[in-house]
Q: What sequence folds into this?
């Protein structure tokens, strides 16, 4: 055991610290999450905003992680918590993308299925 002294309001406390390993701790990541179960590829924007488009992913589940990214002349980008582009209405087989004020050249949605632990 490792003894540590802590001063709180002028009182010195001595405590024994015990390190307890966590069972089932995750292994170190290899820096990849694997290929998505669905990838729309880059969808070229030809309509002026605002507009919506519904895509069929046909995964049969809503237990997913969705990654939405846009691209313009400067390259790929994201607008977190924005009203420029977003997704909604996820069902077991479809997802709807919305483009509002921003005018990206293209958008891409990738979806990974979340497996039960």
A:
């Amino acid at each position: 055991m490792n003894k540590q002294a802590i001063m709180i309001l002028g009182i010195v406390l001595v405590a024994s610290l015990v390190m307890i390993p966590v069972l089932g701790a995750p292994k170190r990541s290899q820096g990849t999450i694997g290929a998505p179960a669905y990838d729309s590829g880059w969808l070229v924007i030809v309509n002026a905003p605002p507009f919506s488009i519904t895509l069929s992913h046909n995964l049969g589940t809503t237990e997913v992680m969705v990654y939405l990214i846009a691209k313009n002349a400067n390259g790929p980008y994201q607008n977190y918590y924005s009203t420029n582009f977003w997704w909604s209405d996820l069902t077991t087989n479809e997802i709807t993308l919305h483009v509002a004020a921003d005018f990206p050249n293209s958008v891409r949605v990738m979806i990974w299925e979340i497996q039960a632990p």
Notes: The first strand starts at residue 2 and ends at 8. Strands lie at 2-8, 11-17, 38-39, 43-44, 51-56, 64-72, 75-77, 85-88, 94-99, 106-113. The mean pLDDT is 77. Residues 36-117 form one domain.
